[in-house]
Amino acid sequence: MKRYDLIQMGVDYYPEHWEESMWEPDIRLMKETGVKVVRVAEFAWSRLEIAEGNCQFGWLDRALDLFHKYELQVVIGTPTATPPRWLTTKFPDVLPIFANGETFQPGVRGHRCYNSTSLREYGSRITQHLAEHYSEHPAVIGWQTDNEFGMLDCHCDACNIAFRNWVKAKYGNLDRVNAEWGTVVWSGEYSDWNELTVPLGGSPHQNPSFLLDYQRFQWDSVVAFQRTQIDILRSVCPQHFITHNFHSYPQRLDMYGVGADLDVAAFDYYPNTSPAKQATTPYSGALSLDVTRGIKRQNFWIMEQLSGSPGCWMPMWRTPYPGMIRAYAWQTIARGADTVVHFRWRSAVAGAEQFWHGLIDHSNVPGRRFAEFTQLCHEVNTLEEKLTGTTLKNEVAILHSHEEKAALDIQPQAEGFDYYENIKQIHRAVTKLGVGCDVIDLRQPLDGYKVVIAPNLYLLDEEIVRNLEDFALAGGTLLITNRSGVKTTNNIAVMQPLPGLLSYCTGVEVLEYDPIGAETHKVIDAEGNPYECTQWCDILRPVVASPIAWYGDDFYSGTPAVTVNDFGKGQVYYFGTHMEERFWSVLLERLSKQQGLFRFEGLPDGVQASVRSGDQGSFLFLLNLSRESVTVALPQEYNSLLNHSICSGELQLEPYGVEILEM
Ligand code: GAL
Ligand code: ZN
After folding, report:
1. Is the CB of 146 under 6 A from ligand 1?
2. Strand locations in 401-500, DSSP E?
3. Active site annotation includes 637
4. Do 342 and 456 fall into the same domain?
5. Are residues 474 and 587 in the same domain?
6. What is the pLDDT of residues 470-520, one digit of tens each?
7. What domain range includes position 375?
């Protein structure tokens, strides 16, 4: 009954922004265009509850009835990201407090503390009313919780109390807190629970164990806040699905924790439209989509998708180049999106986001972008049956962790050292090779993968290490990079040679390290090819591992930079330095041959390949996410689903050209 796996198109629509007389013509046009889903109401609290307890759902009823009349399905957003003025006036505890003591004032959005009792109470009430009112509405299929959760670093009283309770639950007593955080340094010891507050003053140089736990506390606060809504929605509307629209990556959020309570994850996807970013945007976008698919290790939704020139939060970006809207929508489907909802139907004529453009401009005259969207809807609807139920099955995984990222952000390791950027580089190398890749939480089981890449495992515990070791022992190829095994999960440095708990499987010992930061140094591989490295140089002593590349300069010239160790039936690589992307490409290409990985070879720059498969067959997506036309050499004959022809040999892909080939 609950279905969120249909391949279909949607739009974000704000009935409350438009004269009611416009609704039906809009909705009729949606229907004619091929739109099947609409998301509504996620910011409409002041219209849904016009004063405390005074709910006015009549307007939304009329809108939903119209959607139903035109057979459109609706996802309702709970409106808690924008508490109305009557609420914040009466209950100022809804508003977050910044580290400097200032209040996050109403006027924009996101002005809500997740731990505020009033927010939770009134947020639950409006959610309950909406759920009860719409549980049987024939148009409604699902719910979006809030909008784009994110950290606020709130310093209000409620957060102080909640943090204290969180710490008590984790450590029990203050002696243990002092010991686990090492508060003895700089006389930071707590002797009374009331001394323990969230980090005041905003200095990034407070105790790093404390700062990391504060992040964890905030992640848990979001999960707990979301759960207040999930509990209501699950009990009142068990037949509906629940999702949340995740903000662009990287971001400070336990997306795995938030995702665990959802039926399906959703992502808001706004690839950069600038030609200057053309070389990187398609790849960072691919990573974002793979990260989203990894949240629940299943297909996902796009809840907001690029429709026009983004702006308002910054000077406007370029308008999407012809073909871009369509190609980026197909990219999301190629990487596991099922339903793609475009933001927004029409650009707002009022409010702060007037220039974050929708599919239709202020003039309300559908133009070039709308025509492209119409074509896209037609294509998606034609392929709905073939593609619904298909998924990606990848043999490579990159392990990701918001805890590693948080800890590395709390204590930057070297200039230019950025956890998520490092993942981006590796992911780009994999993607350019034409190899599919999952991006999953560090603690997930690794069965089914042949190659696992785990960059910068700065914080470690035995459980993570066992998972990795078991994978390699059973025959997997594991790639680990520098700054691994440095700390315990309490953010305390380990007193053993690095890579600490990973010394056994890597078979190397770090004798000393050199944070070279933005400097570029030399590395030579076994064939004598030169490469560049940056960020970090571990000076390594291979204990049982074999070097495969050596430093080419500085006082450690000639010593190993990258090693490999036979471990059980598998192999463990250790990168003592941050190698340039080309090194990864060469190594991963070799591994793909060694391991017999599925690969679409010979992709030109800017072209991405991925495969969705299921009972109906396997479908190869080829996307040219660039402004140049390119030629792709096809290894076999395929049936082109979009162009209804047989393709073989040289395939010409126009700028932003898309092919979906039946394998
Ligand atoms: C998203 C948000 C939308 C809209 C869009 C464009 O972050 O969820 O409401 O603001 O960005 O800025
Ligand atoms: Zn707070």
Report:
1. no
2. 437-441, 451-454, 477-481
3. no
4. no
5. yes
6. 999 999 999 999 999 999 999 999 999 999 999 999 999 999 999 999 999
7. 8-153+222-387
